[in-house]
Amino acid sequence: MNSPQSSHRWIRLIEPACTSCMICARECPSWCISIDSHTEPVAGLPTGARDRTRNALDRFAIDWSLCMYCGICVEECPYDALEWVGDLTKAGPSSESLVEEMAEKPSARTSS
Amino acid sequence: MLPENWLAAVEALRADGFDYFDWLGCVDEIGRQDCFRVILVARNLAKSAEPRMLSCLLPRDDPRIDSVRGVFAGAAWHEREVAELFGVEFVGGERRRLLLDPGFEGTPLRKDEVLAARTGLNWPGAKEPGETDASPSRRRMLPPGVPDPAVWGDRDASQPASDPAEVAESAVGGRVLRRRT
Which of A11, A73, A97, B111 is the Cys-Cys partner for A24 at CB 3.0 to 4.6 Å? Predict the structure, then answer.
């Protein structure tokens, strides 16, 4: 937990912890979180094991023009993949520029 | 308690030593009974007695009750709040609005109140985990405050309007269940 002066300023995604479960997007009262994900097969299973899939995050965006900094997403995330950070959200010239993409582009991500 | 006995009961409560007004509130009982429940809590500060609660059921189609601001002046604020959020009429009470904009229409805390502006927007939470355009999910989710379009919105106009209890039940958010026909 951050100190009182620094909390409630910016919400950060801890991408490795996110399972794309959509709980934050559904709990958000101002509808500011957008998530895209797809399922991909899990590689490296022992031979004979049943095929498994998992969700892979493609896009995680918070629209700071809608966000009211209530912190419900931080509270609700069952995987602790969102946290408060002391930085201020960046200013922008238009409301579109306040949509912040938080997930790395799939192409930039190292394949796991 | 019947609404006509409300004022006398509050006066009796005060005369009984419970002269510290704590709060007055309202509960929408839709789905259980077709009523609003108005609740008043008063305390006796001289004795460390339990606070005492009075409650009164009002019919939803004509919620009307006597104001108790003559007994507890502080109850006027609570009554104004209940009046505008639930649409309950307090006979003899203060009629000015307390919280909502004067131009606002509606009664936000009634459970059959629909967030109409949201019914036309795309909810980001409607998507399932891992769902893409290439593999759409059969499960449908709705946000809180937005009822199933089959109940409210896309309804057949020739049919009678949905029951408020059905709208309230449908607007709690979550998974859309297949409706029995």
Answer: A73
First to last CA, chain A: 30
Centre a 10 Å sphere on the Cβ of residue B74 and count the other Cβ atoms it contains.
13
Does the structure show a pLDDT above 50 at A2? no
Furthest-apart CA atoms within chain A: distance in Å:
55
Q: Give the minimum alpha-carbon distance from B162 to chain A in angstroms, rounded to a whole number.
A: 26
Contact B124 A19 (CB under 8 A): no
- Region B100-120: mean pLDDT is 88
Question: Which of B29, B57, B91 is the last residue before a domain boundary?
Answer: B91
Q: How far is B85 from chain A (nearest CA, A)?
A: 19
pTM: 0.72
A1-40+55-86+98-104: which CATH number, 3.40.50.1820, 3.40.50.2300, 2.40.30.10, 3.30.70.3270?
3.30.70.3270
Complex prediction ipTM = 0.73
Query: Which residues in chain A touch residue B124, judged by CB atoms under 8 angstroms apart?
Result: 25, 28, 31-35
Cβ atoms of residues B24 and B78 within 8 Å: yes
d(CA B51, CA B48): 9
State the greatest distance between any 2 C-alpha atoms of chain B, in Å, as a whole number.
Answer: 71
Instruction: Tell me the residue range of the domain where B157 lies.
Output: 111-174
Which segment of B13-22, B121-130, B150-159 scores lowest on mean pLDDT?
Answer: B150-159
